[in-house]
Input
Amino acid sequence: MFKRSMSLAAVCCALFIAAWPRDGAAEGAMALGVTGNITKDGYAIGININSNSEAEARDSALDYCRSHGSDVARAKCEIFATFHDQCAAEAEDPQPGTPGAGWAIAADKAGAEKMAMMNCLATAGDRGSFCKVVTSVCDGNSETRNGKQ
Output
């Protein structure tokens, strides 16, 4: 009886440990390539979520950033931020050659989208009404996961 109880306790402990969140899981990163003249050069961005390590998240975000956008913007890609259990969003005026662009990282999807839109509106000039969220994703256990991309 004692042996069976110990075996059951060991199995329960093993299951508990297997289900326990591990440090370093669900890491995210955002990389940006900006020259200072979005109207002329555009920008490049890479957002990675749910990586197993910060290094993996950084590498994936940089790889994506360096493969999308203008040549000049891609050459400027660097890590903007890393995050854990947060959301990231990107907003832009989709018309090429316009200055409206914004990005943000926040505790939840609504907050990230709101900040990205505010940043887009602040740079869009008279085209602010064209700003729209184009990417919105959440990492790990952040509020309102599984955004759109």
